[in-house]
């Protein structure tokens, strides 16, 4: 049942912002590479591409480049489809769930993992995900086909994955409409001070310093960056417009849950995300400028 009260502006974005880190913990945790190494995958980029795309099946590098958007294709092609000759998407999905389980238990402790609040968060997030739509959302749609895990903390993690990928797929639509390619999206987000750090991008996305400088020049020619690489007024406005468009494309799950449910889910999610961040889930070098 949804709430009859109107959803406050940006309530969905605020909820997403505290749900998404809960999903993302396993990407930065030692448990995932350790589990993937057992499958014969000992490269961190290869593990990431395999884990995030496994729900789509043994797809090729073009599909992953398209769906992930901001990775250099040559980096993807270095690992895909080779990983599918080493293991299978079904095995990777099982590995990913084991890694998420171990990561969350380590970061939160068994008491929080088994708490009534975790079960409530899972119920609310799954209810929100009922409002998601699959059209033009390949990563969301693929994960929506997966079964919901029985354990409440993994059910919540699964729902967080659905909500993350639903918003992410919609964000790519907004980026295309704004005529920003994958690297230009990274450069403008970095310049806003809210995205992945330059060091983080260079370490994980496959781009070179020359690629970054060329993207900056393209953005300067559009009046979006200044000579120092900072966003111009037009660049700031573009980033704001992107987020508003993403909010609009992502409103369905939060409208489905309703204002009261969104407020409660945001409260619960903030508590769990604060706990995992305080436990050191994310390396500080990956974020900011």
From TrEMBL:
| Highest taxon listed in the record's lineage | Bacteria
Record-linked InterPro entries: HTH_67
Pfam family for this entry, one: HTH_67
NCBIfam families named in the record? SCO6745_fam_HTH
Name of the protein = SalK
**Can you name the source organism?**
Streptomyces inhibens
């Amino acid at each position: 049942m949804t709430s009859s009260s109107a959803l406050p502006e940006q309530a969905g974005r605020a909820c997403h912002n505290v749900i998404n880190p809960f999903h993302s913990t396993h990407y930065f945790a030692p448990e995932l590479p350790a589990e993937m190494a057992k499958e014969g995958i000992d490269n961190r980029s290869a593990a990431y591409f395999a884990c995030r795309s496994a729900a789509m099946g043994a797809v090729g590098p073009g599909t992953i480049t398209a769906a992930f958007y901001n990775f250099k294709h040559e980096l993807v092609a270095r690992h895909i489809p080779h990983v599918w000759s080493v293991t299978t998407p079904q095995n990777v999905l099982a590995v990913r769930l084991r890694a998420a389980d171990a990561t969350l238990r380590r970061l939160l402790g068994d008491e929080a993992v088994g708490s009534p609040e975790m079960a409530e968060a899972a119920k609310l997030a799954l209810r929100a995900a009922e409002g998601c739509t699959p059209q033009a959302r390949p990563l969301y749609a693929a994960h929506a086909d997966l079964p919901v895990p029985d354990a409440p903390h993994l059910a919540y993690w699964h729902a967080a994955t659905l909500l993350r990928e639903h918003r992410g797929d919609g964000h790519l639509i907004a980026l295309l409409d704004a005529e920003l390619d994958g690297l230009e999206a990274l450069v403008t987000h970095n310049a806003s001070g809210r995205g992945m750090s330059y060091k983080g991008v260079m370490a994980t996305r496959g781009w070179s310093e020359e690629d970054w400088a060329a993207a900056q020049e393209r953005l300067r020619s559009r009046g979006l960056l200044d000579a120092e690489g900072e966003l111009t007024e037009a660049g700031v406005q573009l980033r704001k417009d992107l987020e508003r468009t993403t909010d609009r494309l992502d409103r369905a799950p939060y409208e489905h849950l309703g204002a009261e449910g969104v407020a409660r889910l945001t409260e619960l999610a903030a508590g769990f995300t604060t706990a995992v961040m305080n436990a050191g889930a994310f390396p500080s070098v990956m974020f900011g400028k």
